[in-house]
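Reviewers of the previous submission asked for a worked example of the structure-prediction workflow described in the proposal, so we include one complete record here. The input consisted solely of the amino acid sequence. No template or homolog information was supplied to the procedure at any stage.
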Amino acid sequence: MTIKRRSLIYGMGTAPFIAHFGLASSGSLSIAMFEDELDPNILVALERDTGIKVQHIKCTSNEEIMQQANSVDLVAPTTTEYLKYQPSNLLTPLMDAKIVRFKININRQMLDYVEKNWNFGKGNTLLPHVWGTEGIAWRNDLWKPKSADGRVSYGDLYNPEVKGKAFARVSSLIYSAGIYLDSIGKIPTGSVLRSYGNPDIFDKTWPVVMKFLLPLKKQFGTFWAEGGEEQKDAFTKKQMVIGQTWDNPPLALKATGQKISYQAPKEGAITWIDGIAITKANKDSDAAYQFMEYLLRRDLAGKAIDYHHYNSVVNEAEKFASGTYSRNFLEVFPGDSLVKLHLWQAEPEWYTQKFDNMIATYTKAKA
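From that input alone, the workflow returned the following structure tokens.
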């Protein structure tokens, strides 16, 4: 299964800001990063305060980012890329003394994830930066969650009252069905995650999920494949009532007055993370660490949301973003949502082949 995502919590406008953060330094850096993730206002503030100039090599894929790693100071890959970076010897282990003062502000689950997976034997090599989710969106004038606390569930996609009015991306639907069946005790606890590393667990887990899903295909009136416009069209043109979507498309509709809600399901939203790492090619580690600190300082990270519109890994950064974003954040992630995220994992080749076979089976199946 090829993981594709560009998602965000909808915010309004881009407000320039000035950081009062005096540091003694100078020099220049280059970073290979997705084209929309680096707020130019941070670069302006960094250069003014430290003299450090940063060249942003704008990339559109993780492959492009990795190709640049031999010639740039920093890279910003998606955290699922660790199996590719592990044998490459492209990254420098991070010095904890240099990052401890801002590392403590990072979401603990996301930090634990990278410290486990991006430690290639000599220490962690990457810090998380921005993230987005897949969850459940619905027409709030036509349907409402049935739980007493108002929380939505992946299981709501299979409610008979929305038969033929649900939609999803096939790969994500299969994955979330596994999460849902785990939550109700139909498969062993934790088997979705453990199946990444064990073909036997995979073969015991996912056939159960497919046996559940295939008879319920009539629940779905349409499927999306790639972008946000398909997800919007499912609501606005195809009259769907509920769907599993990225966070941004339904919230963008909400911002225009559409009666749409989006929420992290009670079982946990499916989550991607992009990170930041120092390469072996870097010649000025002090400058690199100062740049990382600017990216991950709470106020600057929060204000940067209004430029790139992604969620920040920095705890409470949302308080420094626009009012629209802050309100949406509280609605999207109620209760314990931020400690129940399901983080995408790196896929061994055998896993990808097996999962792709399930996607093909489901796609070909008759409703």
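Residues 5-25 have pLDDT under 50 and may be disordered. We consider this example representative of the routine output the project will generate in years two and three.
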